[in-house]
Amino acid sequence: MFAVPPNTLPNASESGLAHPVRVAREVAEDRRRWAHRVRYDRDTRWSLLLYSTDEYEVWVLSWLPGQRTELHDHGGSDGAFTVVSGVLTERAVRSDSGRHNAEALHVLVPGQSRVFGPHYAHQVHNEGPDPAISVHVYRPGRAVTPTT
Ligand SMILES: [Fe+2]
């Protein structure tokens, strides 16, 4: 017999403790569930609250070439997003004492995800020539849409 470390979580498939990135990836792979609802808006990024639970919200976003977010964080929420199609570039900014002092660029292709914790600051941009779609999960859910 062996000891189970104290930080061991139960199998996520048997509980409501699925990590946001796991939810994002599962939703991203299950396109038949939501692809017919996707729209593109040439004036602003398009987003849809696909569903929410007591623990998290799941959003689908579309990005035409050149569309981007402003630099933003997610308050006290953590979460993840997964690229479904197209290519998205994330500029992640580390902020210490209210000053932005380091950043990293991540180019994400379909199937790739980014995970973030509370107060994680980033900007996401479709710099490619093709439209992009991504699935975003916020835990707990955001009070505002992710397009603001
Ligand atoms: Fe974000």
UniProtKB/TrEMBL annotation:
<keyword id="KW-0223">Dioxygenase</keyword>
<feature type="binding site">
    <location>
        <position position="122"/>
    </location>
    <ligand>
        <name>Fe cation</name>
    </ligand>
</feature>
<dbReference type="GO" id="GO:0016702">
    <property type="term" value="F:oxidoreductase activity, acting on single donors with incorporation of molecular oxygen, incorporation of two atoms of oxygen"/>
</dbReference>
<keyword id="KW-0479">Metal-binding</keyword>
<feature type="binding site">
    <location>
        <position position="74"/>
    </location>
    <ligand>
        <name>Fe cation</name>
    </ligand>
</feature>
<dbReference type="InterPro" id="IPR011051">
    <property type="entry name" value="RmlC_Cupin_sf"/>
</dbReference>
<comment type="similarity">
    <text>Belongs to the cysteine dioxygenase family.</text>
</comment>
<keyword id="KW-0560">Oxidoreductase</keyword>
<dbReference type="InterPro" id="IPR010300">
    <property type="entry name" value="CDO_1"/>
</dbReference>
<dbReference type="Pfam" id="PF05995">
    <property type="entry name" value="CDO_I"/>
</dbReference>
<feature type="binding site">
    <location>
        <position position="72"/>
    </location>
    <ligand>
        <name>Fe cation</name>
    </ligand>
</feature>
<dbReference type="GO" id="GO:0008198">
    <property type="term" value="F:ferrous iron binding"/>
</dbReference>
<protein>
    <recommendedName>
        <fullName>Cysteine dioxygenase</fullName>
    </recommendedName>
</protein>
<keyword id="KW-0408">Iron</keyword>
<dbReference type="InterPro" id="IPR014710">
    <property type="entry name" value="RmlC-like_jellyroll"/>
</dbReference>
